[in-house]
């Protein structure tokens, strides 16, 4: 037997396609060929594998060695295949029993001493491997992450030597330390922390219930950032499936993953100097950007007119589709990016337009230019625009700062979401125009109210449907089967920026 076959996994977005690793050891001048890897990756991998095999007390065959990684068109540029390559070479040279290694999958980079090093994308590999009948061996430093997959086929090792002892003599391997994902009650933030701003909180609750995108307009210091940061606390925790998606994105992005908070929705706040690549993802190999790190959670853009036009424009497509495709020379990678957008801006360049306590010295033209930095198409994708006015002096608390009321609100939002899902299988913000016609009928009188508002305010066709979706959510929050006049009028009121300043 001179050909040995085993398996490993590539990284492609948050997928981890299976890679076949075949080694052939034949007579001929000593030389190692690795087919299917980029040139520099081959050189580095050869050096590591050779040193690690020797350090583990085995022989590196001085013969002609060919290792083939298939399929050929997958990105294979890192050291993630080192362990599989080392095992297949030792099996092909009969130093370990060759017949058993095709029931294994290996993932891990080797150090020159044979220690196993962490690689990206362990969780996606463990999820894909689960239930396929092949044992997966990963570096023990990645144990917690792999264990989230709850797979019975999962083993960990700290070195090549440990793996070889297992394959040669059946010495048992370790199991990953199971993370007990108990309900975590460490969330201490609450909507009740925000003083005053009852109408902004109302809009935030509507946004939370229907998953509507929201834009807040108000002078500095009115609590816009604090309001936005409380949105994730109003939305029900992520399901197991949603949590695994978020953890998989963290895994391939090499973000520190907080296991303690793993059911809590992400809240990302990229700065306005963030580049388009950092926002949507990219570089080589392509890594997820902020919009994917906010998947299933909230992306908060403070001072939104300050972001570059290019950055704002690239948000449009994922806002519609919930995903982003990143193209690199030879490959296309998809990352999920189903995020809720919360944006905030000042009413004018100086920030104090409409504030009775301070003087605004911006001209009408300056204000217009400032607001038009938000392009129509992006604005069209935001369902609610609200004003967050300066707080009247002496505002300390009101009934919306009551913590038990905040708990009730959270329950109402959860109930409202369930109602939407039972009625139409999705949240209201996700309804298509055709579904809106079906689920958001208006009385004749209300249709006239809406038509008049649309004409008077110059609202776009997209804005028209947004109003209906928001009105549907407002009616759902109070368990009304049909949209009534007050629901519609309130929804029309949330189109602040459709009006001139
Ligand atoms: Zn101003």
Short description:
By secondary structure, the chain is of the alpha/beta class. Helix content is 38%, strand content 16%.
Q: Your description of this structure?
A:
The chain has helices spanning 39-55, 82-92, 122-129, 143-147, 160-169, 198-210, 224-234, 240-253, 276-280, 290-293, 309-314, 316-321, 364-371, 376-379, 403-424, 433-439, 444-457, 461-477, 485-493; strands at 3-9, 18-26, 31-35, 64-70, 104-106, 109-110, 116-117, 135-139, 154-157, 214-217, 267-268, 281-282, 287-288, 298-301, 323-328, 331-336, 340-345, 384-387. The chain has three domains: 3-169, Ribosomal Protein S5, domain 2 (2-Layer Sandwich), CATH 3.30.230; 191-400, 3-Layer(aba) Sandwich (Rossmann fold); 431-501, no CATH class. The protein is built from 19 helices and 18 strands. The protein starts with a strand and ends in an 8-residue tail after the last helix. It has 501 residues and is an alpha/beta fold. Strand 1 (3-9) and strand 2 (18-26) form a beta hairpin. 38% of the residues lie in helices and 16% in strands. The strands form six sheets. It has a five-stranded parallel β-sheet with strand order 11-14-17-10-18. A four-stranded mixed β-sheet has the order 1-2-4-3. Strands 5-8-9 form a three-stranded parallel β-sheet. Zinc ion binds next to loops. Residues 348-350, 352-353, 360, 362 line the site of zinc ion.
């Amino acid at each position: 037997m001179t050909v040995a076959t085993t398996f490993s996994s590539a990284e492609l977005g948050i997928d981890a396609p299976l890679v076949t690793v075949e080694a052939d050891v034949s007579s001929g001048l000593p030389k190692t060929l690795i087919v299917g890897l980029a040139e520099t990756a081959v050189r580095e991998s050869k050096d590591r594998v050779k040193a690690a095999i020797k350090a583990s007390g085995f022989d590196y065959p001085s013969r002609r060695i060919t290792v083939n990684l298939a399929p050929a068109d997958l990105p294979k540029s890192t050291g993630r295949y080192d362990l599989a390559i080392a095992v297949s070479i030792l099996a092909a040279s009969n130093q370990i029993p060759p017949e058993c290694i095709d029931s294994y999958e290996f993932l891990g980079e080797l150090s020159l001493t044979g220690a196993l090093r962490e690689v990206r994308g362990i969780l996606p590999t463990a999820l894909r491997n689960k239930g396929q009948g092949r044992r997966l061996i990963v570096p023990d430093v990645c144990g917690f992450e792999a264990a989230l997959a709850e797979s019975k086929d999962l083993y960990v090792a700290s070195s090549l030597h440990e793996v070889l002892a297992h394959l040669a003599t059946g010495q048992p391997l370790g199991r990953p330390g199971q993370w007990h994902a108990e309900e975590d009650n460490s969330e201490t933030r609450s909507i009740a922390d925000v003083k005053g701003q009852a109408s902004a909180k109302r809009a935030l609750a509507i946004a939370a219930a229907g998953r509507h995108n929201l834009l807040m307009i108000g002078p500095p210091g009115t609590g816009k950032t604090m309001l936005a940061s409380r949105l994730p606390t109003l939305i029900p925790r992520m399901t197991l499936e949603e949590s695994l998606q978020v953890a998989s994105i963290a895994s391939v992005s090499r973000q520190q993953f907080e296991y303690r908070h793993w059911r809590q929705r992400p809240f990302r706040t990229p700065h306005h100097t963030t580049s388009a690549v950092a926002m949507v993802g990219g570089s080589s190999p392509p890594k997820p950007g902020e919009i994917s790190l906010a998947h299933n959670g909230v992306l908060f853009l403070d001072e939104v007119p300050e972001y570059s036009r290019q950055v704002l424009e690239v948000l449009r497509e994922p806002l519609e589709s919930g995903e982003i495709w990143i193209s690199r020379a030879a490959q296309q990678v998809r990352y999920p990016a189903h995020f809720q957008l919360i944006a905030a801006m000042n009413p004018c360049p100086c920030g104090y337009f409409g504030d009775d306590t301070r003087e605004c010295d911006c001209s009408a033209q300056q204000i217009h230019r400032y607001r038009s930095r938000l392009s129509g198409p992006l604005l069209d994708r935001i369902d609610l625009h609200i004003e967050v006015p300066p707080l009247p002096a002496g505002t300390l608390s009101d009934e919306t700062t009551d913590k038990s009321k905040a708990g009730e609100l959270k329950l109402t939002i959860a109930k409202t979401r369930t109602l939407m899902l039972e009625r139409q299988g999705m949240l209201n913000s996700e309804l298509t125009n055709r579904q809106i016609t079906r689920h958001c009928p208006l009385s004749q009188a209300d249709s006239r109210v809406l038509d008049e508002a649309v004409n008077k305010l110059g609202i776009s066709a997209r804005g028209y449907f947004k109003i209906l979706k928001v009105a549907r959510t407002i009616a759902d929050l109070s368990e009304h089967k049909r949209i009534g006049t007050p629901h519609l009028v309130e929804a029309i009121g949330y189109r602040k920026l459709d009006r001139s300043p």
